[in-house]
Structures are given as structure tokens and as C-alpha cells.
Amino acid sequence: MAETARCRLVRYLEHLTSEELKKFKLCLVDGPRRGCPPRGRLKEADRTEVADLLVTYLGEKKAWERALSIWEKMGLRELWERARKEDLGLVPASVLPASSGERNKYRERMRNQFQLMRDRNHRPGEHELFQHRFTQLLLLQEYRYKEQKHHELLVQGWRHAKVMEEKGEPIEVSALFDPDQNTGIQPHTVVLQGAAGIGKTTLAIKVMLDWAEGKLYQERFDYVFYLTCRELNPLGMKVISFADLIANDCPGLQAQMTEIMSQTERLLFIIDGLDELKFPCNEHRYDLCKDWKQERPLSILLSSLLRKTLLPEASLLLTTRLNALGKFSPLLENPRHVEILGFSVSQRKEYFCKFFRNEELGKKALDLVEGNAPLFTMCSVPLMNWIICTCLKQQEERGQDPLQALKTTTALYMCYFNSLTPDDKNFMPQHLKGLCGLAAEGIWEGKLLFEEEDLRRHNLEAADVSAFLDMNIFQKDSGCENCYSFIHLTFQEFFAAMFYLMSTDEEWEKSPDFSIPDVKELLEEYSENDASFLALVVQFLFGFLNAEIASELQRKFRCRTSLEMKSQLLEWVERERKRDNGYSCLSSEDSQDWPLLLYETQNAEIVTQALVKVKEMGLMSFRAYDVLLNTFCIKHCPGIQGLSYYCDFDAPHAVWQDFMSMVSKSQYLKELHLRSSALVDIDIRMDKLCMVLRETNCKLEELRLEWFKVPCSCFQYLFSAPSLKRLHLRNIFLDDNGMKLPCETLEKENCQLETLEISCFNHFRVYDMDCSLPENQNNLLLMGTCLQHVMELLCSVLAQQNCKLQVLRLEEFKVPCSCFQYLFSAPSLKSMHLSDIILYDDGMKLPCETLEKENCQLETLEISCLKKWLDSFLPENEKNFFDVTCFQRVMELLCSVLAQQNCKLQTLRLEEFKVPCSCFQYLFSAPSLKSMHLSDIILYDDGMKLPCETLEKENCQLETLEISCLKKWLDSFLPENEKNFFDVTCFQRVMELLCSVLAQQNCKLQTLRLEEFKVPCSCFQYLFSAPSLKSMHLSDIILYDDGMKLPCETLEKENCQLETLEISCLKKWLDSFLPENEKNFFDVTCFQRVMELLCSVLAQQNCKLQTLRLEEFKVPCSCFQYLFSAPSLKSMHLSDIILYDDGMKLPCETLEKENCQLETLEISCLKKWLDSFLPENEKNFFDVTCFQRVMELLCSVLAQQNCKLQTLRLEEFKVPCSCFQYLFSAPSLKSMHLSDIILYDDGMKLPCETLEKENCQLETLEISCQNQWTGNEVGFFLSEKEKKLFPKITCIQHVMELLCSVLAQQSCKLQMLRLVDCHLTHRCSQNLFSALICNKSLKDLGVSGNSLEESGIKLLCEALGNSNCKLGTLRLSRCALTTACLQDLLPVICSSENLKTLDLTLNLFDDEGIKLLCETLEKQDCKLETLFFFQPDGLSEESRRALRNLESRKSFPLIVEDYLDVEDYLYS
């Protein structure tokens, strides 16, 4: 009989995985609706039902065509091609045997036999449909090595689940008998192996039932027979024919047996539970049976079937535990081994949902388990899933909330053991104690796999552990070199904890386990050394304190929890609690997870005793399980005063209700901080919180809410709570719930708030809003109505005479201009901070007469406006919010406040504000203002004249002034009519006013900061001569010449009081910043005039300037005489300067007075953006002559006996060789860093006799020569006449000869020497390394970037081997070292007593060299502690593995393996 389309569809659908079947249904629903099966019926349909629905609604032909098109669309190419070929007759379809009637009866009988399943704790008549409960298992066809097994036993929780799923390519049940992908051979024997409870029998029954229902192997097997070894055991020696054996349950098959056995290749025999066989099958090698009709003992028949002597062409599907596989392996012929790993994460979720028949309840139950790593690990075992689900279901049946009643980890482990062992199971105490001792020893030694020698050491033989092998607590794994192990590390930890229960102090010293640390040592190791490997052992010990568990241990294992151990645990808790945070604080970030440990006891008396002195708690919940732990601790903490609680998931309503009930009942709770990262998805139940705050017995004084959705109507309760003094609402979502705010409630003046902080959630709306907010709440942030309601309520509060609010913070808020009259005139407000606000005009007039009462009590005011995400944040009708009118109205009001005689405002901060020039007269002359910070402001001219006569009263009280202007986003920020706001006129007017203030004798301004400002040269006379100014920082300024002469005679009064001066000029975005008429602002004339003025100041005897910083400045050579000889200057930093020759001679006789007081000097020159920075007439500024003149002057300074210069840094400098005699012999210099320098020979001889005086005081010397841009780019850096000077090899040799002369001195103090990219020759290396032999001071040597080769390394080895050499650090990166170099170097390194750090980064070692390196450094006598190594190319995987092993075994702190790390390292 030909196969029907329905059967063919079922056969092909069987090849789809669960996920592919879901996708198939989705494609079916989303396709053409005409004739398509209903969505509701498809959703829960299995493969057979899907096929039936397709044929019913579409007919056989169209159903098959629709299935083909969907498989092609899903990308199932192989399945589609196979089906299409079968459709075309290219592949023969399966044909049912003639006796299909009897076969169908057999299938029906098997279906009835296996379709129902019963739980272990089922009631009479209670059963479940097998297909409704069954969940797919994770199967793996791969051999696992010992290391893989070790790793699997070790990891927990999600990491364990990930390891399980990443072991290899999973295999589907439908593909168990498919040909091997590598050999093409089709297996006839498949062994399903796995631990007890992992689902072997369930999977075997699933195969049988699916075949009987026509879902599996229809094209391959005509008959499938199921034999369970548990039922075969009583028939062990019975004489029977194989035909009678398989027809035992279906007598009707006897008549068809000959026909059935005529096609043995189409037969499958499932033999379930080989490990349970009680009779031998491997003793009948020479007495086997070949005839299925012959009567023989069952053991012989079974042995013959396994050995393929009987029915050799039939297929076998065997199930067995891992530990029993060894004795059956010799019987099997080329078997395919498939391991059952249990459930993946998605399969665990599926099981939970099926068990509860409620997806929501199943998901919540699994969420609880996910938070408990040991339980989640055990959930890979289906039996453990059943235990957990059964426990939860029993709680539900008792009318209790299953989510609130999940048992502890210890309790569930006990439940697991009870399910595996009958009550009459007896354990020999000595065997149990031996097993526990083995577990404890393994925990301490990090051992997970045990050999028979380990068992014997604990008085155990293989026979002694048989009871535990049967329980599947302990296992013998033939696949891992016949090693024993616990089924997982967590079980080993459980028995290790039991070991401490079974050993008293009296017994301890007498026992063979005396080497295992006792409880006291266990707890000390866990707490003091952060021994995470003991965490679960300690958790189980706390679990044993539970009365029910202690009773069960006594009954089951004859273990008793001693009072002594309980006392030790409680003493340890008290001691560790004091050590972590004192007695008063409990935090989830403590070294121990206190909530978990205390919850494990389930003992209120113990927990209360442990927390009796706790006053504050900081707890976090990331899973539902965490909520149970934390709530348990909070409930039993009698004196808690402060609670900070972070929740990272959607808390159930019942949990939130219980939590708030606890808050309302607490007599001592003063501070509550609630935070959630789940945004508005979390149901916060603000109404419940408000009810608690209204209660008269509520003692809360401080409330912090973060990431909450807050309805506007709740603010009346938040503002009027009778006990609340501090309210902080951070990153909240405002929601208009349509309720009117009853302001009359607030008129009772019962607001007790002293501090209020509100920030709205806006700052990443552009990126995250769509996924953060539900569809119906996308307008929450755009509803100005919410913010306006809150602001009206707030202003009503502030207007109360009895208002106590002193500190107000609003962030990311829309604030109408009219509110500022209330904000500025609030009688109680001392400090106001408005951050990232959006100003808008609500059309209401500001009644300035209210402010005339001079009742503003503000002392600190900070306002910053928000533009950065304005365009995407504001709707179209609010695009004018950031208009200049709003700013002008607020500034007018602010100036009115500042003009009041009774004004108390001392600190003012404005950020991203538009400020009219006319306001500065009020800002500078405010009688109370001490500190003013205007950041990223936009200056504009409002046409009003600045009445300078107001400033003549000299009433400016400012001590600190900071102004920075905003250009970075000007074009997108200003409308077209305001594009001229940043004109030079505005800056000039403000600077004139500022200079007028500074000229006042009574001026108190001590610190001045100007950033991104246009500063005219003429102003510097006032800036430098201000009588009060101590510190001036001008950052990214633009100098320009306003044509006014600098009256230097003013400076002759020597009244400059500056101690710190920093000036940096701005060129980086000059072209886009300046209009065409100002392109000449950065001319050299401006710099020269400022430098002349500065030098005049420095020459004053009364000058106090100690620190000078100039950045991106043009500096003439002639100025250095003043810079070097300034009597007060201690520290000078000239960064990215451009040297030029102004033609003036340097009067060196001035320097002979030896009055240079500099202690630190740093100079770096700027070439990187020279071409775009200098005009054509200044292209010669970077000439060598400039450098030579400065270096001559510097050497003259260093030669002075009274010179105090200790630190010298020169970067990107041209240095003549002749200068090094002065650099090396300077009497004061301790540290010298010459970076990216260019050495050249100026023809002067180096007088080495000067150095014979041994007066070199250097302790640190670093020299790196310029390599980065001396190649093809040298043309723009060096002139033609200079190309002959650079880079002559004689320069290096001269300097090295001089350096070696220094190193040879007996009194040499040099401790660190770095010579990077210095082109060292063989002669240089010889001199350097020879000098090391007699030098005892050098501790750190770096010669990176120099090609040393073998000859140089031999010289270095000779130096390192000398007893005088004290080098502790040696850096040889990029030295072209080969494996031959390593052969010379490594023996010396190993024998060195001093060398601790070695750098071999980026050399030329091959695999042989890496092998030699690793073998040498692994030696015990090698003292090396740190190795830097990286070689990007040429290493095999074996070499890389050797390096990783070296790192782990030697515990090197760093082996560089990432190129970015190397970059960071090389330039650090």
C-alpha cells in the first residue's frame, strides 16, 4: 500500500527541531490565508496534528506543495531537496509490509502501553499524557576528555548551562541512525549514556511512542521492540526462544514472526537499562545463538543480540549509566555513543511550563531557580526539575504562594537524595564518613576526579561505594580514564560539609582525615583569603542549622549537628560582620553573602541574633530568589534605621506589598533608598508608598527613588509627608494620570522637606526610548503638562512662610520663566541647582516688584541648560524653547536679585547659557558674590551700554571667576538671526569691564579662568598687574591685536601678585571659528607683545610667579634669558611651542648671577600641525639655530653651582651632542627625559675631563630618538643644510662614550636608564654593557628599539653574569632577538638573583625559541616574576598554548597577548 501524503508529511516533519517546527507554523500562518488551518489550532499542535490539519484544510496535493515551499523559505535545503526528489520518484518511498494490519495492531498496543506516565508520588488513578509532559533533551555525540569532564564538574549556574550547550554539535533523536558525517558509515548500534535521573528511560520510551504514533523512523523501521532490563532480570536463566521473548506482550505477532524476521534490517530493538542487568552477558563468547527460533538461556540470547551474532542486520538502541558502560563495550560492534546531557536553558523553561500547565507560573518558578546557582546547575538533571516543581506545586495545593515558599538549597539537595533512595536504605557509617572525607579532601586540594588510591586512603574499596554508585551521588566514569567523581562539584561540596558534621574535636586528631582543616580553619580561609571554592560548603553548614534538615540528616545519614559547630558558626558571623562594616551595616557587597547564608538557616532566632546590632542595610536583587533572601533578613533585623534596596527585575505585586508593610511597621527606619533598573516596566505601586508616607506612625526622614514611574498626583503626598525631610527622585518618569493636584492640601504648610532633588529620565531617550517604554507611554517625556503641574505645586510649597526647604535640585526639567520669581524669592531656600533644564516662555509676566522685598536667601545658585539632545527631544511646537528671550528674562531677574543690598548669593554657576554683555556690570559688582563660574556660555550684544561708573565704587567681592565660551556646537545651536553672537565686539566689551574691575585697589579676585575666549593684547597689562590676582588660567584663547600700546611703565611698580600662570592658545578649530576679518588674529606680533610683557613681569624682584604653563605658543629665543633667570619661578612647562629667532642677542652675562630658581622644566616643540598653523613668512621658525641658542642658554644655567633644576623634560627637540657634557654633569639634575629628540653634531669636542669630577647626580635618564617622522617626512622638518648633520652615527657614539664615562664613576647614582630607538652600534653596545660590570647603582635598563643581535646579547650576558650587576628590570623589546640570542640569554637570567622583570616584546623568536623560553622559566630556581611578551606573527598554536601554560603555572602577573596592550605598553 502506497504511503499517504499525511504519513509522508509526518515523516518529514519529524526531522524538524522544536524551534524549526515553531517557525514552520509561523510561516504557515503568515502565508496565504485561503484554506489555511486556524491559528489557534496550529499553536498547540504536534507534528502529527500539523500534518492532519494541512491535509484536512488544503487537500493532499496542496498540503505537500505548501510544505515544500515553506521548507525552501526556511533554508532547509537538504530536507527540501530530499522531499522534492522523492516527489519526482528519484528516491524510493517507504512501502508498508503486506501484514500491515497486524503491524498496526502492534503499533496501537504500544501506543496504549506508553502514552500515559505516572509521577513518583502519584495518587491511585492519577496519570499524565506522556507527550504533554515530555521535554526534549540535549544529546551530544562526542567523546569527552578528562579535562572537559573536570571543567563540567566545576562550573555552576548559567556558566554550567553555557558549557553544557557548547560541548559540541548536538544531535537530534531522528538522526541517531544517520550515516556518520566523516566516514559515511551508518551505525547499527547506538548507546545512549548518562547519569541516573538524566532521562535515559524517558527518552527510550519517547522513541518507542513516537514510532507507534507514526512520528519517527517510519521510513526506516517496520517494527520497534522495547525490552527493559529491569523486567528481564527475573528471567535471567530461563530457557526461551528470541521469538517468544519479543512476542511475550503481543501474542498476535507469533503468526507473523517469519515475515517479520525476513527483513531484519528494518527492525529496531530498544534495550533499556543495561546497567541494571543482574545476570552476566559477557561470559558466553563461545556459546552464542544465531537462530531466533532456538530456545536458549536469556543471558545467551541477549549476549548474542549485543554481539551481532543473532540478527546481525538489526539495529540496537541501548541505554546505560556511564559507570556500567565499561563491561558492555567489548560486546558491541562499532557503536555510536551519544551522551544525554540533560536540559538546556530553554528546555528547562519548557519543562517548568509543561509541569505547571501555566506558562506564566512556570516562568516565575524558573526565575526563582535561576537566581540560585547550585539549584540552576542541578536543573540540567530532569529528575531535579521534577523535585523542584513538585515542591512548588505542593505549596500551591496547600493554598500558599509557591514563589514565596521555595525551599533552601540545602533542603532541596536533601529532597533530591530522598527521591533517589528508599527509606530502608542503610549506609555503613564508616563508608559514609570515608566518602565525606574524600569529598572534603578534594575540595581543599582542588581535586574533582579521584582514583582508587584516593579511595583507599579513606578506607574505601570499590565495593564500599556501591550504595552511592546506585544512588548516582558518586559515579565511575569509564570515559574519563576509570576515574571516580561526584555527579557534580555541588554534590561533592554537600558531602564535604557533612564531613564537618561527623567529626568532633575529640575524634579529629585520631582520624586519618586529621590533615583536613577543621571548621575554624575552614571559616578563616573562606573569609580572609576570599576562598570562593569554599562558599557552597559554608552555605550547606548554615543550612544544617535548620531543625527539619538536622532531623532528616539524623534519620537518613545518622549525622547530628553539634551545638559546638552551631556556636562556631554564630561566633564567626559576629566576628566577620564587625570586620566588614562594623556591627552597624549589612551590605550585599560584603566579602560574604550574608543574606544567602542567613536565609539558608530558615531560623528566625539565629538570624535575629546575627543582625541585632545592624543599623543599615544595602541589598540588591537581580532574581526573584534574591528577593526571598533579602526580605527574610530585613524582617528579622529589629533595629534597622537605613535601607538601600536595588531591584533589577519586575517585582511581583505581593512582594512589593509585603515590603511596604514592613516599612510602615518599622519603628526605627529613617532612610529608605529604592532603585530599579527595570524602568517603567516594574510595577512600583506608588499609591501604596504614598499611603505609608501619610501614616502618622511613619518615621521615614529620607526617601530616595531611582528609575521609578511617578504619577503627578503623587507629588502632593511626597511634598506633604509629615516626617519626610529629604526627598531625592532620580531618573524618574513623570506620568500624568489625569488627577488634579489639590494644592489646598499644601496650604496647611505641613511640608517638612529640607532637601528636594528631582531629575527626569531623558538623557538617552533617543536611543532607548522605544524599547524602554510601552507603546502607550511613549509620550510620557514629551508631556509638558506633567512638568508644569509639578512646578506649580513646587512653587506653591516654596511660597509658604513655614516652608523649610533649603536645598533644591532639578535635573532634565522643563522650567517656565515665570517660576523663577518663586525660586529666587523662596524665604527658606539656601541652595538651588537646576541642571540640564529647558527654559521656555509660558507668557506670564515676571512681577519684579516681588523681588524688591530683598527676601532672596539663596547662597548658591547653579543653572545649566540643555541643548545636546534638544532637536530629538522637543516636539515641533516647542522648538523655540531655547530662544534668547527666555534667557534675557531670567538674566534680568537674576541681575535684579544680585543688586539687592541684602542679597546673600555667594556662588553662581551658569552653564550653556546665553548671557548679554550688559549683565556683566551686575555680575561683577554684586556685593555678596564670591565665586562665579560661567561655563560654555554664548556672549551676545543686547545693545545696552555698560555703565562703568557703577564699578568705580570698587564693590566687586569676587574671589574666583571662571568664564568659558561655547563654539563647539554653535552652528547647530543658534538660529540664523543670532549667528553674530560670537563676534569680537562682545569679548572686547567684557574684557574692558573685567580689566576695570581688576584695576580696583579693593578688588579681591584671586583666581581667574577664561576658556575659548578672544583676548586683546592690551588687556594683559591689567591681567599681569592686578593687585589681588594669585592664579590665572587662560585656556584655548585667541590672541588678537587691538592696536592699543601696552604701557609697560605700569608694570614697573612690581605689583604683580600672580603665583600661577597658564596660557594656552587655540588653533585646532581656528578656521571654522573665526570670521574672515579676524583670520590674522593668530599672528606672531600678538605673541611677541605678550611675551615681552611677561618677561618684564618675570624680571621684577618682587615677582611671585612660581608656576608658568604656556601651550601652543610662539616663543622667541630671546625670551628664554628671562624665563630661565626669573627669581621666583620654580616650575615651567612649555608645551607644543614654536621656537623662532627674533634677532635679539641673548645676554648670557645676566645668567652669571646664578639666580635661576627653576626646579622643574618641561619643553615640547610643535611640528605636528606646523604647515597649517604657520603663515608663509614664518615657515623658517623651526630652524636649528633656535634650538641651538636655547640649548646654549640652558647649559649655561645647568653649569651654575647654585642651580636648583632637578627635573628636565625635552620633547621633539633638536639637541647638539656638545650639550650632553652639561646635561650629564649638572650638579642639581636628578631626572632627565629626552623624548623624540634629534641628535646632531655641532662640531664641538666633548671635554670628557669635565666628567672626571664625578659630579653627575642623575638618578633617572630616558633618551628616545625621533623615528616616527624622520623618514619620508624629514623633508619638511629638516632644512637642506641640516640634512648633512642628521642622523650621523658619530652623534650616537659621542653621546654613548660620554654616558659610559658617567656609568663608570664610582659615585654614579643612576638607577634607571632607558635608551629607546637610539641606533646603538656594536661599539656603543660594547661600551654600555662593559660599563654595567663596574656599575652598582643601575636597577632598570631599557634598550628597546635597538638592534642588538647576537654579538650585543653576548656582551649583555657577560655583564649580567657579573656579581656587581644589580639589574632588577631589563627591557629588550624590538631588539631583533632570535632564538640563538635566547640560548645565550636564558641561562644568565635563571642564575640571576636580582632580575625580576624581563621584556621580550616584538622580537623574532621561532617555535623552538618559545619552547626553550617556557622550559627555562618553568624551572624552580628561576627568580623571574614578570614577563612581558608579545609576538603577533609566526607562532604556532602549540607555542601559544605553552605561553598560556607558563602564565598559569608560574603565576606571571602579565603576559601581553593583545596588540592594543602592546601599543599602550610601548608608549606608557
Could you describe the 3D structure shown?
The protein has 1468 residues and is α/β, with parallel strands linked by helices. It has a 33-stranded parallel sheet that branches. It is globular, with a radius of gyration of 43 Å.
Radius of gyration: 43 Å
Low-confidence stretches: 90-99, 145-161, 679-683, 740-749, 762-784, 846-854, 868-874, 946-954, 968-974, 1046-1053, 1068-1073, 1146-1152, ...
Give the termini separation.
81 Å
Could you say which overall geometry the principal axes of the C-alpha atoms support?
globular
Fraction in beta strands: 15-25%
Report mean pLDDT, rounded to a whole number: 75
> What level of helicity do the residues show?
25-40%
Task: Compute the number of strand runs.
Answer: 45
Main sheet attributes: strand count, strand direction, barrel closure? 33 strands, parallel
Number of helices: 60
Topology:
Elements: H1 5-13, H2 18-30, H3 39-43, H4 47-58, H5 60-73, H6 77-87, H7 100-114, E1 116-117, E2 128-129, H8 130-133, E3 138-140, H9 146-154, H10 157-165, E4 189-193, H11 200-212, E5 223-228, H12 229-232, E6 239-241, H13 242-246, H14 257-261, E7 267-272, E8 295-297, H15 298-306, E9 315-320, H16 325-328, E10 336-342, H17 345-356, H18 359-370, H19 373-378, H20 382-397, H21 409-420, H22 429-445, H23 452-457, H24 466-471, E11 474-477, E12 483-486, H25 489-501, H26 505-508, H27 519-528, H28 535-543, H29 547-557, H30 563-581, E13 585-587, H31 594-601, H32 604-610, E14 616-621, H33 624-635, E15 642-647, H34 653-665, E16 671-676, H35 686-694, E17 702-706, E18 709-711, H36 715-720, E19 726-735, E20 755-760, H37 765-772, H38 784-798, E21 807-811, E22 814-816, H39 820-825, E23 831-840, E24 860-865, H40 870-873, H41 884-898, E25 907-911, E26 914-916, H42 920-925, E27 931-940, E28 960-965, H43 970-973, H44 984-998, E29 1007-1011, E30 1014-1016, H45 1020-1025, E31 1031-1040, E32 1060-1065, H46 1070-1073, H47 1084-1098, E33 1107-1111, ...
Helix pairs in contact: 1-4, 4-5, 5-6, 7-11, 17-18, 17-20, 20-21, 21-29, 22-25, 25-28, 27-30, 28-31, 31-33, 34-35, 54-55, 55-56, 56-57, 57-58, 58-59
